[in-house]
Design brief:
Layout lengths: L1 E7 L2 E8 L2 E5 L3 H4 L3 E7 L4 E3 L8 E5 L3 H6 L9 E5 L4 E2 L4 E4 L6 E3 L1 E7 L15 E8 L2 E2 H7 L3 H5 L4 E8 L8 E6 L2 E7 L7 H9 L9 E3 L7 E2 L5 E6 L3 E9 L4
Parallel strand pairs: 6-17, 8-14, 9-20
Antiparallel strand pairs: 1-2, 1-5, 1-14, 2-3, 3-4, 6-7, 10-13, 10-18, 11-12, 11-17, 12-14, 15-16, 15-19, 19-20
């Protein structure tokens, strides 16, 4: 099922997508399950929000596709290359990505995102899927011109609005045959199957949880394929994963007082 987080009549709620309607849930399904209120609301009457706001962290995997490592002139990592995005970087479908004045080369990176459903520590790859609540779409927005000179990636990856997520969480998604497609103003820039990942999702969950605990609502961004590039104010960036939907955001420059 697809779970959305939405705003309706000045209240933020969760619902199950059912055609053009949302079946309203009694609470956050990560913690309250899937009990419903009996209400239905039309999608046309709500504003979709990021389907999850991580209470703890967004864990990202760098250079997880051979072709992306090559296009940036980097070696393929021998083990997952991890970094974090702050939860303040998260925005939802339709929200605006803000290009910061510190960067002249702000780029898209379309990715599959994994939403963790329960406390996970020292999880084996064999058991990894038991800890997954569902899957959604992400754009790992990056200030490329700050990434290398900074030496570490916290600033380049962590600006406000640099982690669009959505439009919904699919709890039953077979990514083994899936792919990610990124478009800039309607033109395809990235398209690659998830089978091209260097480290697959079960391995990533095992590797990450061997280092630190994942909490319900934490999100793992699984890496981006080749085709990244810069966008400008007014551009529309779409990341599509068939079966999950389309995450669409428009960019603008920061307002400087």
């Amino acid at each position: 099922m697809k779970i959305a987080r939405f705003s309706h009549q000045d209240t933020i709620r969760f619902g199950i997508l059912d055609g053009t309607e949302l079946v309203v849930l009694a609470g956050d399904p990560l913690f309250a399950g899937f009990d419903t209120t009996g209400e239905r609301v039309s999608l046309a009457d709500v504003a979709l929000l990021a389907p999850v706001i991580p209470r703890s962290k967004v864990v990202c995997v760098g250079r997880n596709y051979h072709d992306h490592a090559a296009e940036l002139g980097n070696e393929v990592p021998k083990q997952p290359l991890l970094f974090f995005k702050p939860n303040t970087s998260v925005i939802g479908p339709g929200d605006t990505i803000v290009r910061p004045p510190q960067s002249q080369d702000t780029q898209w990176e379309g990715e599959l995102a994994v939403v963790i459903g329960k406390i996970a520590k020292n999880v084996s790859a064999a058991d990894a899927h038991d800890y997954v609540f569902g899957y959604t779409i992400a754009n790992d927005v990056t200030a490329r011109d700050l990434q290398k000179p900074d030496g570490q990636w916290a600033r380049a990856k962590g600006f406000d609005t640099f982690c669009p997520l959505g439009p919904a969480i699919e709890t039953d998604f077979d990514y083994s045959q899936g792919e990610v497609i990124t478009r800039l103003n309607g033109e395809v820039k990235q398209q690659a199957p998830f089978a091209d990942m260097i480290f697959d999702i079960p391995f990533l969950i095992e590797y990450i949880t061997a280092a630190f605990t994942l909490l319900p609502g934490d999100v793992i961004l699984t890496g981006t394929p080749a085709g990244v590039g810069a966008f400008q104010a007014g551009d529309v960036i779409e990341v599509e994963i068939p079966g999950l939907g389309i995450l669409r955001n428009t960019a603008r420059d920061a307002l400087i007082a």
